[in-house]
Every structure is written in C-alpha cells, then in structure tokens.
Fold:
Amino acid sequence: MFIIGILLGAAALMFILQNFMVISVNFLVWHFDGSLAFVILLSVVAGVLIGALLSLPELMRRGSHSSRLEKYNRQLATELDVHKEKLAATEAKLEVTETPIVIETTNPNL
Structure:
C-alpha cells in the first residue's frame, strides 16, 4: 500500500510539473488565476468533500442500524443461554425420572 501511495504521489508530481501553465477561472462573481494543476487538484478535493458530505447521512444511518443489530444480537445470545440452561435442567430431570418404555407388538416383523 505504501508503494502505491509513492507511485500515485510521483504521478501527481509529474502531472503538476507538466501542467503548470496559468489559467483563469471565473465562477459567478469570483475570479481566480492559477496553474492548471492547482485548479484540477482543487476541483478533485472539492468533489471528494462534497461526496463525503453527501454520503455522511447514509454512513450515520448504517452505524445506528449496526448498533441496534449488535444490541439485538447480545439480547438473543442472552436468551439462548437461558434456554440452554433450561434445556440442561430439563434433560437432567428426564434422566432421573426416565423409565424404560416397553412397546408390545403383535407383528413379528418388528
């Protein structure tokens, strides 16, 4: 991962050095003169920030949903433990009171 970061950084540096010409950007009443690479970099950063802000509500919703599921999972695990204890107690009682079952049949094949 570190090597990929170095390669991307080197590619970005090459892009900046090759696209250093000054351009003029106008947006409504705002005016900016800067290098082409800086304007593109600023646009990418703005796009990433806008994308992150737009996805934030969904990430928060998933986080709260995950928390509810984890809480419900803990509740179910506790209930399962209770039922296992009840089952073990019932099996122990059954072993104590169990009597042999005799099945009489008139069919000689059984």
The first strand starts at residue 22 and ends at 27. The chain has a mean pLDDT of 81. Residues 13-93 form one domain. The chain has one domain: 13-93.
